[in-house]
């Protein structure tokens, strides 16, 4: 199945609707019924204006955060339509990918977008 890998970049200290922005994105993905999302914390990075962001021993507020989603074209359109309604500015990368499942329990019909639920 064809789709997109969407990666959002933010910092631990950014808030939206009273939640950390990364957590809010995960919640939004669930509300939209997307296939999944992963929140990852980085050690260090810098943004578009060159400011260094890092996780320090005493302070994690400036820690870089990524939220990754592998989505279909329809899911991607719904996600970005919803984000356009929010009062935020959020940097992202969106790249075309192939997504699916591999292994004995993957759907044998060639549609590997959903795993098999029966046990052999």
UniProtKB/TrEMBL annotation:
InterPro entries to which the protein is assigned, alphabetical: N-reg_PII-like_a/b, N-reg_PII/ATP_PRibTrfase_C, UPF0166
One family name in Pfam for this protein: DUF190
TM ranges: none
SUPFAM superfamilies: GlnB-like
Tree of life domain: Bacteria
Entry similarity comment: Belongs to the UPF0166 family.
Protein name: PII-like signaling protein
Native organism taxonomy: Bacteria, Pseudomonadati, Pseudomonadota, Gammaproteobacteria, Pseudomonadales
